Amino acid sequence: MVKNEWNKIIISLPGAHLLQSQQWGDIKHSFGWDVIQKLWQDEQGTVVAAAQVLCRKIRFAGLSFPYSVLYVPRGPILDWSDEALVKRVVTDLEKLAVKEKAIQMKIDPEVITGKIVAGVETKEVNWVTPYLEKQNWHYSPEQIQFKNTVIVDLGGTEEDWLSRMKQKTRYNIRLAQKKGVTVRQIELDELPLFYRMYVETSLRDGFAIRSEKYYCQVWKSFIQQNMATGLIAEVENEPVAGLMLFYFANRAWYLYGMSTDKQREKMPNYLLQWEAMRLAKTKGCNVYDLWGAPDNFNEMDSMWGVYRFKEGLGGDVIKTIGAWDFTPHPTLYRLYTRIIPKIMKYMRKLGKRKTLQVMEQ
């Protein structure tokens, strides 16, 4: 498909997502995934659904196998209230999985099951999960993306935004300004600095990250195509925190955040988020996705502290069905889901070792 033609098509569909963009597919292709783009049309020839499917052939210990794994990140994209269309798309994806000899076909569409607004939870009708179960799809043991997220409404004025925030958040934004925290956009040659701060964050907070090559390629590619901006917070010209803001289809995402242990008492992360909201608005975005919320909304959840920070920005929780797997080869799938966690555990240990080496340089 012609460059960016895919984007023009999917932007018109409900739930268009950054991870279904042409640019995301290009990044994944450069790191070993094949990309299959599928469209569905109605009787008038209008595109009503789309799925950018990532496909990776199984290789292990230098050997290639005639099987693959398929993944539709944050897709397929369509109106999930249209039962006939959903069944048509799901059936076609199942056929694709069989054709590609897939051990699994994973989807994680934003099918909303509930919301938490101002502390009040509501549930939405969900016929999709029972349908997938009937079709022999399984709730995935490997949830690659966050199942739930926090969305900030960018409608209204900046005063409206502040009024929807928690009092402590408003105070911390003003405190950061008062204490001399400044925020600016980064230059491309500062991406290694961004990565180094991300390394420090991963070690402090205990999550695994990829190589510098991967992140710098992602960030550089999206910045150059005017789909992302890096923001860095400084105190007396010293970098202390940063975030990468992505935008696509009138929506912004906070996918990567990083900080050092310096000047944390001056609340640089609060001012960073405020400036990210302001920038997203200038890019035509209506909502700001803070990317990630707990599975369990209690203080025992590892994401509780992060969630409280995001909630303070005036965000509402969006709950979704999460990732689901279709398994044409159940025996291989069971074997795959037993082996992969062990491999990932080893890779995380190896990755942490390499991350520590970065900090020691």
Q: Could you outline the blueprint of secondary structure elements for this entry?
A:
Layout: H1 5-10, H2 22-30, E1 34-41, E2 47-60, E3 63-72, E4 77-78, H3 83-99, E5 102-107, E6 112-117, E7 120-123, H4 128-134, E8 137-139, E9 148-153, H5 158-164, H6 167-178, E10 181-185, H7 191-205, H8 212-224, E11 228-235, E12 238-248, E13 251-259, H9 268-282, E14 287-289, H10 304-312, E15 316-320, E16 324-326, H11 330-360
Parallel strand pairs: 3-5, 13-14
Antiparallel strand pairs: 1-2, 2-3, 2-4, 5-16, 6-7, 6-15, 8-16, 9-14, 9-15, 10-11, 11-12, 12-13
Helix pairs in contact: 6-9, 7-11
> By helix and strand content, what is the structural category?
alpha+beta
The biggest sheet, with number of strands, parallel, antiparallel or mixed sense and barrel status, is:
9 strands, mixed
Order of helices and strands: HHEEEEHEEEHEEHHEHHEEEHEHEEH
**Count of separate DSSP helical elements:** 11
- The share of residues in helices is 25-40%
Alpha-carbon distance between the two ends: 43 Å
Mean pLDDT: 92
Q: Strand order across the biggest sheet?
A: 7-6-15-9-14-13-12-11-10
Computed Rg:
21 Å
Enumerate the spans where pLDDT stays under 50 for 5 or more consecutive residues.
Answer: none
Beta fraction: 25-35%
- The count of strands amounts to 16
Q: Globular, elongated, flat, extended or rod-shaped: what is the shape?
A: globular
